[in-house]
Amino acid sequence: MHNFSLIETRGDAGKAVSMLLARLLEQNMVQAVIVPAAVPPSVLPMTRLLNNPADLDQTSPLAPVAGVSAATQAAKISRGPQEIKIAAVLRPCEIRALVELHKLNQAQLDNLLVIGLECPGRLENQDYIDLQDQNQDLDQRFYRDEDLQSRIAITCRSCIDFLPENAHLNICVLGLDLDQQAGIAWDEGPGADAARALELKPGQEPGERGRAVDSLRSQRESAREEVMSRSRETISSSSGLQSMIAHCLGCFNCQRACPVCFCRECVCSREAFEQNLEMLHTRAGRTGGIRLPAGMTMFHLTRLAHMAHACVGCGQCSSVCPIHIPVADIFRTVAAATQKELDYKAGRSPEEPIPHLNFSTEGDQ
Amino acid sequence: MNTGISRPEEAGTDNSRHKELDVLALVCNWCTYTAADLAGVTRLHYPAQVRLIRFMCTGMIDMRYILSCFLDGADGVFIGGCHPGDCHYLTGNLKARVRIKGIRPVLESVGIPPQRLRLEWIGASEGKKLQEDLTSFARVIEQLGPSDYKGMNLV
């Protein structure tokens, strides 16, 4: 991002960003906004669609939580009438998922003004609800309290893609004192138009930002290497893989929470693949009984085979697992190998074709 | 009765060592399966642990079928399709190729060496090539031994 501007926060960065969003509506740059907001009595911010500038003061754009991945909702509403422009406040992983969904014809990017949030990580939903009870100003405090930051979701702790890519405007929080100032960054195009409407004046980017980003990245990279090498080691044998997924309940939560798993009906829940008594009977005789529901190894490997190229590393699959299987660790490990082999990175660019949809008669087997 | 057809054992293939190994060959109806017919008519033998499964096109071989083979105890999976440009349905074989490229790292990550999966283009007239490819693949599988997933009681 070439242009950078600081905005005054006066002790509440979330409110300052909300006011910018309200101004986008007032200026008619967009006709609707989707942004995290809790609807009382809930304290958990979830994606909310708003179109009245006066309502924006109830939103929490910087809340360190993502109830579900907002990419699914953003993709759904982006397919609507193209004359309604929508500003969407999204985390980096949600933008990557949105880009993947766009390539799968599940999302339109033309009518979206994507506002990316620099993401130090998200708290698990239950942790957020519990911490909200103890801290009224949790959203603001999270950004200065290292103790709170250390409680982020397990997948986020080893995420190295915490800077938003492919957004029109970025909300910058790293290396800034959010009690005083937050940053907005933008490039030419729709981002610059929005910045003009918001009367943002390009200024100097504080030097601490670069240092904060580098230090977070190096910390995350070593965490990632540790997680990846551990799960690489474990899943590399049939017994290791079994030990990781042995407790799978077959709830399919991981598949439903996955923002890039877009099929309306998963092949794994199709009748054609259901294991009938006859098949189970044969197998049970061979293996000394069979656990029901059966076919969980097949389910996880199918999801890996079908979706590893598109994994954006959001960690929602691990977050929703009722039995705490580190689904995201397995997925990210296999995804890293798959995406390297296919010379592809999920969510890197809307123009990069999905390898599975790119046929050429060139090359050999 | 002497039919004049020599059984595989007599043809010099040592099948005793292959006994517990299973190789599944998922083959296209229009090319490799026809090549297998030709091989049969020409009395060419391929290793006895190979079982052919006919598909209408390699493009219909979902990654799930390949996984299913391995999880149900196959030691090797061979896929035979039409040469690029010859697909009866235009691009089915190219779809198969990119899927196989994509599934290899997944298999490797979970302890199934990529050599256990092979894709070959075998035209309808290449009965000889079918024999050679299946034989060399069976030899590779024999060297690798039984798969890590063979006989596992998987959840």
Fold and architecture overview:
The complex is a heterodimer of chains A (365) and B (155). By secondary structure, chain A is α/β, with parallel strands linked by helices. Chain A has two domains: 3-220, no CATH class; 237-357, no CATH class. Chain A is 40% helix and 10% strand. Chain A has helices at residues 13-26, 70-78, 92-103, 125-134, 138-141, 146-149, 190-197, 207-235, 238-245, 253-257, 277-287, 296-307, 316-320, 327-341, and strands at residues 3-8, 32-37, 46-50, 86-90, 112-117, 169-172, 181-186. Chain A has a seven-stranded mixed sheet with strand order 1-7-6-5-4-2-3, sandwiched between helices. In chain A, strand 2 and strand 3 form a beta hairpin. The radius of gyration of chain A is 22 Å and the shape is globular. With 155 residues, chain B is an alpha/beta fold. Chain B has one domain (19-144): Rossmann fold. Chain B contains four helices and four strands, in the order βαβαβαβα. Chain B has helices at 32-41, 63-71, 92-109, 127-144; strands spanning 23-28, 50-55, 76-81, 117-121. Chain B has a four-stranded parallel sheet, sandwiched between helices. The longest helix of chain B is centred in the middle third of the chain and has 18 residues, at 92-109. Chain B is globular.
**CATH C-level category of chain B:** Alpha Beta
Tally of discrete structural domains of chain B: 1
Strand content of chain A: 5-15%
Shape of chain B: globular
Strand fraction of chain B equals 5-15%
Q: Using the alpha-carbon principal axes, give the shape of chain A.
A: globular
Task: Output the structural class of chain B.
Answer: alpha/beta
Biggest sheet layout of chain A: 7 strands, mixed
Largest sheet of chain B: 4 strands, parallel
Number of helices of chain A: 14
Order of helices and strands of chain A: EHEEHEHEHHHEEHHHHHHHH
User: How many domains, in number, for the residues of chain A?
Assistant: 2
Strand and helix order of chain B? EHEHEHEH
Return the average pLDDT of chain B rounded to an integer: 89
- Total strands of chain B: the figure is 4
